[in-house]
Amino acid sequence: MSVTAIVGAQWGDEGKGKIVDLLATQADMVIRYQGGNNAGHTIVNPLGEFKMHLVPSGIFNPNVTSVIGSGVVVDPGGLLKEIDDLKKAGVSVDNLKISDRAHVVMPYHALFDRLEEASAGAGKLGTTQKGIGPVYGDKATKIGIQMGDLLDEKFMIERVSSIVEKKNKILAALYNHPSLSAHSIIEEALDYGRKLKRHIVDTQPMIYGAIKEDRKILLEGQLGALRDLDWGIYPYTTSSSPIAGGACTGAGIPPREIDEVVGVVKAYSTCVGEGPMVTELKDEVGKLLREKGGEYGATTGRPRRCGWFDAVATRYSAQLNGFTSMAVMKLDVLDTLPAIKICVAYHDGDVTYTTFPRTRILERAMPAYEEMPGWQEPTTKIRSYGKLPARAKAYLARMEELVESKISIISVGPGRDETIFV
């Protein structure tokens, strides 16, 4: 491999962090290409268990250059805490680089996120209220602050004063909220700039150099294809593009340079937040999946909605991303089930869908299932595909057939070694 994109194939929380951490042991550079600290990657390796939100999951290999790309939105305070936690655990951050073009999550972004969600009532989107939507909104309307701007005091004073003046008018008119202090916001931002200065660089030349030298590069996405702003369950989406195409813009990688796209999928389905999830289970099986799989958000701690594997949604993701292979996570969570279902189509009244429709249709769609016998044998200690139970292999083969993508990695536990390479 030269450049490999690691992308989420479902609603997020698929286990991308483990795959990046695992493959980063043989990589030269890992680039996080979009999103903010509104979702996290849980990583278990010989150094311990970590909840990563902004720092790329390749940071545990000291020989890897870990890059926060231009498509990421950075909460400087959250990033500094993450850096501090890593240092306390003995993890070096010397090779952490932050694109000077990445946008900054300012205090008013989180404030507007909270106020908007509170005012939406039943129509809320289920955001983490970290300010991610508002900062991408400011980026699109050309009033954003980039990480490199934190190093320019004169520019920050002029720019932020103007922005805060406008924000205060909106706060007063729409929310009857007290005005913000531009001075306090500027001072805090400049302090963050001083603390992060040695990490903030123009990343494009180093990334181009790595490509030219045929270095091994991993592109790390956040969330999953079904949360993509264009192709996901809009409006219950993130505000950026987690799919492989988004990796090109968010990292600064020409499309022709991506050699492999690994779609990370769970052996079942999970989802955090609002929006349609056709296979959601609100019964005892759903509870079992949640508890056995530890399905609670790495960032918020919110319980994840759980359900059967949705082959319609995952095949759609495979088509959007161009999977060269899949990494199937948490197969072991299904070990005790006597029967396992796979969603192969949706029903909307008399209409049957085998392709992934728009959100309005998904909200009223019902799943059409195939049922397969469970294997009811433990898989957590298995390290080779041939030793998996026959019924587990049959389930995986059906996943491949329905998604139209081969499986290259199977995870049977959170640790690096709890992995089967196919």
Q: What structural class do the secondary elements suggest?
A: alpha/beta
Note the main sheet: 10 strands, mixed
* Strand arrangement, major sheet: 9-7-5-2-10-1-11-15-19-20
Number of helices: 12
Q: Segments where pLDDT lies below 50 for 5+ residues? A: none
Give the distance, in angstroms, between the N- and C-terminal Cα atoms: 16 Å
Can you tell me about this structure?
- The longest helix has 23 residues, at 153-175.
- A hairpin with a 2-residue loop joins β16 (339-348) and β17 (351-353).
- The chain folds into 3 domains: 3-99 and 200-261, Adenylosuccinate Synthetase, Chain A, domain 1 (3-Layer(aba) Sandwich); 103-196, Adenylosuccinate Synthetase, subunit A, domain 2; 264-421, Adenylosuccinate Synthetase, subunit A, domain 3 (Adenylosuccinate Synthetase, Chain A, domain 3).
- The chain has helices at residues 16-23, 76-88, 107-120, 132-140, 153-175, 182-196, 204-212, 244-251, 284-293, 311-321, 359-362, 390-403, and strands at 3-8, 29-32, 41-45, 48-52, 65-68, 73-74, 96-99, 103-104, 200-201, 217-224, 260-266, 269-271, 305-307, 309-310, 325-329, 339-348, 351-353, 366-373, 407-411, 419-421.
- The protein is an alpha/beta fold.
- The model has no long low-confidence stretch (mean pLDDT 94).
